[in-house]
Amino acid sequence: MQYTLTVSLSTLRAARTHSADKDVRYYLCGVYLDTKAGKVVATDGHRMLVAHARGVRSAGAPVIIPNDLLDAALKQFGGEYARGKSLGACDVSITIDGAQLSIATPTGHVTGRPLDGQFPDWRRVVPQGEPGVLDGAPAALNSDYVTDACAAFSIARNISKAKAGHHAVRVLQRGEHPSIVCDTDPDMVVIIMPLRDRMVAEAPVAACRMAHDDALPYNDDTAERVALEAAAAVSSAA
Questions:
Q1: What's the whole-model pTM score?
Q2: Which residues contact 179 (CB under 8 A, 6 or more apart)?
Q3: Orientation angle between helical segments 9-16 and 143-156, nearest 10 degrees
Q4: What are the DSSP calls for the chain, one per residue?
Q5: Side-chain half-sphere of 148: how many Cα atoms within 13 Å?
Q6: Among 57-61, 67-71, 193-197, 232-236, the least confident range
Q7: From 19, 125, 165, 229, which residue has the greatest number of CB atoms within 10 Å?
Q8: Of the ranges 62-71, 128-137, 195-204, 213-222, the best mean pLDDT one
């Protein structure tokens, strides 16, 4: 069966930032097009990006675009198709014909084979948007993942790197549950798993107190006491 899907170029670029690289779970090393849900999904098992894409909704089977194939196609979208340019969010046609996958580019087509394997049930990771479920709580997050999520939203909105820092995102921390990153448009969300073994709920309070408290006169006794107090705080939190 042959069928064609359309996805925004900026969405593909954003999703690529969250797919796994050289993972033994090879089926994560690509961008998933969920034809039943009309979603573009990418994850490395620690964070996940989900974007709405009406042009992906199809009677055809879901497909995983391999990273190398997608990278080869994205490299051909330069000039006015570059990030932040007038055509940086244009629709990209992706045709699946049996075991062949073809991505249309400004210079022709990039063709290869989709990834085999079963993509994870990504819906199980996304919290239900109901009152009480999305209550916030302090969380320990990988700072690189937060940075990547912010970048992904700027890319998805076709904002140039020079202006990316002005694009606001919202981070909802949920304690030991997956944290949620979004912006003002509800057509994309990033889910980040917390670092559970490094959770210290009191850390934000202690850090703010430190900023307000005057420093004690420094001497060897002070340094030893501070070190002991820090060790005790970590031990009690564990």
A1: 0.84
A2: 139, 141, 171, 172, 173, 191, 192, 193, 194
A3: 170
A4: -EEEEEEEHHHHHHHHTTS-SS-SSGGGSEEEEETTTTEEEEE-SSEEEEEE-GGG--SSPPEEEEHHHHHHHHTT--GGGSTTSTTTT-EEEEEEETTEEEEEETTEEEEE-PPPSPPP-GGGTSPP--TTTT--B-----HHHHHHHHHHHHHHTT--GGGGGG---EEEEETTEEEEEE-SSTTEEEEE---GGG--TTHHHHHHHHHHSPPPPP-HHHHHHHHHHHHHHHHHH-
A5: 23
A6: 232-236
A7: 19
A8: 62-71
| Residue-averaged pLDDT of the chain | 89
Structure token pair of residue 161: 């790197």
Cα 99 from chain centre: 28
21 CB-side CA count, 13 A? 7
What stretch(es) of the chain map to CATH 3.10.150.10? 2-122
CA 157 to CA 74: how far, in whole Å? 16
Integer CA distances (angstroms), 142 to 149, 164, 181, 194, 199, in order: 11, 20, 13, 7, 11
Instruction: Select 2-122's CATH number: 3.40.50.720, 3.10.150.10, 3.40.50.800, 3.30.460.10.
Output: 3.10.150.10
Tokens of 51: 């974007």
Question: Which candidate, 106, 77, 101, 97, places its Cα nearest to that of 12?
Answer: 77
Query: Cα(228)–Cα(3) distance, rounded to whole angstroms?
Result: 65
Residue given tokens 């098992």 in the structure block = 45
